[in-house]
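#struct-help
A.M.: can someone run this one for me? Single chain, 156 residues.
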Amino acid sequence: MSPEPGHYTRLLRYDAWANAETLGSLRQRVAPEKAVRWMGHIAGSGALWLARLRQESPPMAVWPELDLAECAEGIERLAQGWARYLQTLSPAGVQQEVSYRNSRGVDWTSTVGDILTHVAMHGAYHRAQIAAAVREAGGEPAYTDFIHAVRQGLVE
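D.P.: on it. Structure tokens below:
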């Protein structure tokens, strides 16, 4: 049995918060180029998954060439898009299957719940890469652990 829609709403609220925190860490000093590229990929891939769920054309490339300001805009649009999408998600909708073609041209079918889980985990993966790049460049990466966000009341 899959979690209820509220579980995914919470997960993607966390994802939006963590993305914003990560952007903040990139603004502290000159952001490493690879970190900005990964941040753009979080925005681009999230937009792609949201478009797949809505059965729309994606609004940007999976690996878009964005500067930090454009990353921030993309992340904000994505957070708003997920919030709107999740408001309409029913318990039965979590189990709905979505067919799509991946970036390699292979057809797949996944449940909405699996896609939403993937989006949050994929973002965490790339935020870890960004954190490592920020630290490598002498900066202080954002502290984006889920449990930290929950303990601090930053994610309801």
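A.M.: thanks! The beta strands are 97-101, 107-111.
D.P.: also worth noting: The mean pLDDT is 95.
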